[in-house]
Design goal:
It holds the Pfam family GntR. This is Transcriptional regulator, GntR family. Keywords: DNA-binding, Transcription, Transcription regulation. This protein folds into two domains: 5-75, Arc Repressor Mutant, subunit A (Orthogonal Bundle); 80-241, 3-Layer(aba) Sandwich (Chorismate lyase). Helix content is 27%, strand content 32%. The chain has seven helices and eleven strands. The strands form three sheets. It has a six-stranded antiparallel sheet with strand order 4-5-6-9-8-7. Strands 10-3-11 form a three-stranded mixed sheet, with no helix packed on it. A two-stranded antiparallel sheet has the order 1-2. Helix 2 (13-27) packs across helix 4 and helix 3 packs across helix 4 (49-61). 26% of the residues are buried. The model is unreliable at 236-244 (pLDDT under 50).
Length: 244
């Protein structure tokens, strides 16, 4: 069989170093431990500091390392396992739901969400903003789109109380099912701000449709940090620390 040009290309130096560093993280360092400085690491592995930085950036992207200003580079905790099994969830806001509602306000949904909700383009719906925290850091942000903007009993202030009121209203509705899609994406400016990441950082996008009385009653678009989250679909607690 003819060898392709790609198969003949040597492994990039930074990737080989990334593999060596990953093994060192597994055997020599513990979670939260500060790594030696770049000069020491470059000397230990016999590489240029530019190559070392590439390898460290790759491991940070994979969630193995964390860089903190004033602290240095530390070994990251294991990824958080987020269970997406429908059996673990009813409506958003169910008892034990780890998400925190931060605000709600009427706004037109994105075109794709409008189609799922079967509302006219530009028609406002209620948008509930929620955040998922672990280890004191945000790991996911969610926009929950609910038709029915203009309900007279809604709290006027567009804050947490309005969001909680809408979630309670959903809880009073008989849910008939849900479906979900998962895809890899890049963080937009607003999601990046909420997740304390740079725009363009890799994220996992989870879109969930909630059904009631034969129609779509709500649509959730959740953005998870790809470097700190592992999505699972087994019957297990909603947040479980898993080994990398």
């Amino acid at each position: 069989m003819e060898t392709t040009q790609r198969e003949r290309e040597p492994e990039p130096k930074y990737w080989h170093l990334r593999t060596l560093l990953s093994k060192a993280l597994d055997t020599e360092f513990s979670v939260g431990e500060i790594l030696p400085n770049e000069r020491e690491l470059a000397a230990r592995f016999g590489v240029a500091r530019a190559t070392l930085r590439q390898a460290l950036e790759q491991l940070e992207l994979e969630g193995r390392l964390q860089r903190r200003r004033g602290v240095g580079t530390t070994v990251a905790p294991p990824r958080v396992g987020v269970d997406l099994s429908p059996s673990q969830h009813s409506w958003p806001g169910w008892s034990g739901d780890p998400w925190t509602a931060t605000a709600a306000a009427p706004a037109p949904p994105p075109p794709a969400v409008a189609r799922l909700l079967d509302v006219r383009a530009g028609e406002p719906v209620e948008v509930i903003h929620r955040t998922l925290m672990t280890h004191g850091q945000p790991v996911a942000t969610e926009q929950l789109y609910v038709p029915g903007s203009g309900e007279p009993r809604l709290p006027a202030a567009e804050g947490p109380e309005r969001a909680r009121w809408l979630l309670r209203r959903l809880q009073e509705t008989d849910a008939s099912g849900q479906d979900r899609t998962v895809e890899l994406g890049a963080a937009g400016a607003e999601a990046a701000r909420r997740l304390e990441r740079l725009p363009g950082s890799p994220v996992l996008l989870v879109t969930t449709r909630y059904f009631a009385a034969g129609r779509t009653a709500a649509v959730s678009v959740a953005t998870y940090r790809a470097d700190t989250c592992r999505l699972t679909f087994a019957d297990q607690p909603a947040l479980t620390a898993l080994t990398s």
